Amino acid sequence: MRAKWKPYRVATLSLASALVAAGALAGAAGPASAGTTAVRLDYTCTTSLGPTVEVTAWAVGGLPDDGSGPNSVPRHQPAFIDVDVYLMELRPVLELADEVRLDGDSTATLGARITGPDGTRTVEAALTVAPAWVRKSQGASLRTGGAFPVQYLSQEGYYDLHVDGLELVLRPKRADGTSLGTVTASCSHDPAQNDLLGTVWSQGLVSDRPLRPTGLHVVSTTPTSVTLAWEANSWWFPTAGYDVYIDGGNFGRFPGKQATLTGLTPDRLQRAKVVTVDVTGSQSTKSQGLLFTTPPA
């Protein structure tokens, strides 16, 4: 059997510890999931302000666990691959006021290559910047979250996900909300550096389980709550309810196709997923993830 990505697959506790030690989880939205992988990259960025700067990034992937075994997917099902990028020490990129705010109108794009039995494909993940304050007097870390386009890994085998270049479009604001313009950065890493984020195993199995929910969307938000809605259909057995997850944590089971979740943290980027549970206790795979940001308090 092929040796699979052992140096790069990271247990939840050790991954969280590594990112905390690096400062990457400052303001992050929750613990890593069971299918989490991570890789550290050192980027050289050319900025619109002129200088070339060095930025360290942790790319954290949420690979599918939909088949038999970790980081696997049945070949006839879509593969949902989440990714968060934690950027360390952003002050040289911005070179602006003593304190600036970045939020959802700042974006990033992460390039990647997926290499498998059917060749190599290039993909890009559109990333949203989580709300953060960047200060000259403190180390500045920033979380960006998103997902790669839905992938169909239709040939059985192993698919390696390699991280490539990173593009930043940052729109800092003063404390009073006034804009400080737009700063862009185009970043690349040393091609000799390890860039393997993880490996997905495409399998030929067919699972008999409830259908996963689709069409997950936000109905409304407050600083400490969100109302979500989705579409779903029953399978062989009637549906007992829907489990809703926020950043990997189960917020409970809800009887209908809408749920209001309370007790959330204000001004935070968060990822929701939903699972269908039937009356026998069988569960669907998780829905495609949905990113949302709670407003400031």
TrEMBL record:
Leader sequence residues: 1-34
Residue ranges of every copy of the Fibronectin type-III domain listed in the record: 212-297
InterPro entries named among the record's database cross-references: DUF6801, FN3_dom, FN3_sf, Ig-like_fold
Domain of life: Bacteria
UniProt keyword annotations, A-Z: Carbohydrate metabolism, Glycosidase, Hydrolase, Polysaccharide degradation, Signal
SMART domains found in the cross-reference section: FN3
PROSITE patterns documented for this protein: FN3
Listed name of the protein: Fibronectin type-III domain-containing protein
UniProt source species: Saccharothrix longispora
